[in-house]
Design brief:
By secondary structure, this protein is mainly alpha-helical. The protein is built from eleven helices and no strands. Helix 1 packs antiparallel against helix 3 and helix 7 runs antiparallel to helix 9. The chain starts with 12 loop residues before the first helix and ends with a helix.
């Protein structure tokens, strides 16, 4: 995430001090917050439950490594901006582009492979069953959930490459990187304890709104990127959630074709 110094509005001294701190440290702090969310969410699965039952496909571990590298990449990039090493920041950014490309490909493959893997072991191992839900109903839930995974990956990919396109415009670039990273947080939030996990996308929205709040405090106006992107994310997410719950025949046929 690149950072430039924005002109702070004329406000009382206390507010100016807060605005100055946010202007300097907000995006670095957000990389740490995102990393903490991911670490906590997925750490709950790195336990005997993850290691029990049949061996997981190798692609899952590849996906985990790439995901971890992405969070480390964000922290490194933000740190480089903080020490004003913009040359290294831009050079490392192309490595991030390669990493993001790998994450997109591996993310799609992992989603498909893991859905197939879970469907295969629904009957064979109780680890993959949900109490009170019939096998057929659970299988349909797994297939329907494919849409959520593909939506998150598509949003991350689109937002990241928009940030690359506008890499020379720091105010656009860093907000797009923030939005792209937020779209990776839904799987982590979904692994939080209940009832928090049930509202994973609302927590993603709450993290995004921190960026909106930062703009209101620092510049007293919301950047146009939020006006353009947030409506698309909200409408798209509502469609995805409705489709996953309704399990319409058209999507179930598509999901079955993808998985099989």
């Amino acid at each position: 995430m690149t950072t430039s110094v924005e002109a702070l509005p004329q406000t009382p001294p206390a507010s100016r001090k807060m605005a100055a701190v946010l202007n300097r440290w907000f995006y670095f702090g957000m990389t740490l917050l995102a990393t903490a969310i991911v670490a906590y969410g997925f750490a709950r699965r790195i336990e005997p439950r993850l290691l029990e039952g049949p061996p997981r496909p190798v692609i899952l571990w590849v996906h985990s490594i790439l995901f971890s590298l992405w969070m480390a990449f964000l922290i490194a990039q933000s740190a480089l901006v903080r020490v004003r090493n913009i040359t290294m920041h831009r050079t490392l950014g192309w490595g991030g582009a390669g990493l993001a490309t790998a994450m997109t490909v591996v993310g799609v493959v992992t989603s498909v492979v893991m859905t197939r893997f879970e469907l295969q072991y629904l009957n064979a191992h109780p680890l993959f069953a949900l109490n009170g839900i019939h096998h057929d109903g659970l299988a349909r839930m797994r297939l329907a959930a494919q849409l959520g995974s593909l939506w998150n990956i598509a949003c991350f990919t689109a937002l990241f490459w928009l940030s690359v396109y506008w890499r020379r415009k720091p105010e656009l670039h860093r907000r797009l990187i923030l939005l792209a990273t937020c779209m990776l947080l839904a799987p982590a939030f979904s692994r939080f304890p209940q009832p928090f996990a049930h509202y994973s996308y609302y927590w993603v929205a709450a993290v995004i709104l921190l960026g909106v709040a930062r703009d209101l405090i620092v510049t007293q106006r919301v950047h146009r990127v939020y006006y353009c992107v947030l409506p698309i994310l909200i409408v798209g997410q509502q469609f995805v959630e409705h489709t996953m719950l309704a399990e319409p025949a058209w999507w179930m046929r598509i999901a079955s074709f993808i998985v099989r």
